[in-house]
Amino acid sequence: MKNIDMRHGPLIGKILWFAIPLACSSILQQLFNAADVAVVGQFAGSDALAAVGANGSLINLIINLFVGLSVGANVVISTYIGKENKERVSQAIHTTIILALIGGVILVLIGEFIAPEILKLMGTPEDILDLATLYLKVYFLGMPFIILYNYEASILRSKGDTTRPLIVLAIAGVINVILNVILVYKFHMSVAGVAIGTLVSNMISSIALLVFLIREEEPFKLHWSKLKLKGSIVKKIFAIGVPSGLQGMVFSFSNVMIQSAMNTLGTLPVAASTAALNLEFISYFILSSFSQAAVSFIGQNYGAGLKKRCIKVVHTCWLLALGFTMAYSFLVIVFAPQLSSIFTDDAAVIELAVLRIRIILSIAFVNMTIEVLSGAMRGLGKSLVPALIALFGICGTRIIWIYTAFRAQPTYRTLLNVYPVSWVITVTGIITAYFVIRGKYLVEKE
Question: Is the pLDDT of residue 73 over 90?
Answer without folding.
Answer: no
